[in-house]
Design goal:
Blueprint: H1 3-27, E1 29-30, H2 33-36, H3 39-49, E2 64-67, H4 73-83, H5 123-137, E3 143-148, H6 155-166, E4 172-178, H7 187-191, H8 196-202, E5 206-211, H9 215-226, E6 233-238, E7 257-258, H10 261-273
Parallel strand pairs: 2-3, 3-4, 4-6, 5-6
Antiparallel strand pairs: 1-7
Length: 274
């Protein structure tokens, strides 16, 4: 990737962070920490990597994304709005009656959402099924999935992981948002993953580890994953929950919180300085 393109993606990620913050502020509260932690990844995927068309969001041959950690919806909605999947004004209806943007992703409501998620641990299984279907169809599509580190305490994640390796799903790339925090404590306090990368290697996956806030590193890892055709790919992303809003970065409280006008101003000032 050219340096100028990497800079453009980083700027877009910051724009998306601002949109997500504004969205949650308008709603009154929401899941902001886990949205901000994956914004650099989502930007790289939707603006540089994935084969998607906002004018044809149901294209059967498109690449697909399953946001298994469905509470990151505000982050994904910001990206989809910037990409043109729906009118920008919709972001100000987050979680309101009649909205197309519920707190957690819903494929029946939101253009560009490929899987309904929110009940943690289930999205990777859906992504495995999509990758198998694409293999049968022979359409050359790729499937991407984002899981959380707290979510990885769910047994279904590992069942899906075993089966993906058994089926040699090289078209599947999963990202682990390793931010170290979950809803009410740190991941290590609740149920530590220890060395997550080694766990996935033991499950038969091709594993890479990157700085999850470096768009160049993310892009390079995604491209490298495409060369592995006989194993599913896991990209462990070392991230900061609440990335961009300094006061909440790396904290448990960032998972879901209210955002006042003063909070919004503070966060936007922090993001502008980065």
């Amino acid at each position: 990737m050219e340096q100028t393109r990497a800079h453009e993606l980083a700027v877009t990620a910051q724009r998306a962070r601002i949109l997500a913050m504004d969205m949650v502020h308008t709603a009154g509260s929401g899941h902001i920490g886990g949205s901000l932690s994956v914004m650099d990844l989502l930007t790289t995927l939707y603006f540089h990597t994935m084969r998607v068309d906002p004018k044809d969001p149901k294209d059967p041959d498109r690449d697909r994304l399953v946001l298994s950690k469905g509470h990151g919806g505000p982050g994904l909605y910001a990206i989809l709005a910037l990409k043109g999947f729906f009118d920008m004004k919709e972001i100000y209806t987050l979680n309101k009656p009649g909205t197309m943007l519920p707190s957690h992703c819903d494929r029946l409501l939101t253009p560009g959402i490929d899987m309904t998620t929110g009940s943690l641990g289930q999205g990777l299984s859906a992504a495995v099924g999509m990758a198998l279907a694409d293999r049968i169809d022979g359409n050359g599509a790729r499937v991407y999935c984002i899981i959380g580190d707290g979510e990885s305490q769910e047994g279904q994640i590992w069942e899906a992981g075993m089966y993906a390796a058994q089926m040699k799903l090289g078209s599947l790339t999963c990202f682990l948002d390793l931010n170290g925090q979950q809803i009410d404590a740190s991941v290590d306090e609740v149920n530590s993953l220890l060395d997550a990368g080694e766990k996935w290697r033991a499950f038969g996956w091709n594993v890479q580890e990157v700085n999850g806030h470096d768009v160049q590193a993310i892009y390079d890892a995604v491209e490298a994953a495409k060369t592995c055709t006989d194993k599913p790919n896991m990209i462990v992303m070392h991230t900061v929950k609440g990335k961009g809003w300094k006061r909440i970065e790396g904290t448990t409280m960032s998972h879901s919180l209210s955002v006042s006008a003063d909070d919004l101003a503070e966060a936007l000032n922090d993001i502008d300085k980065e």
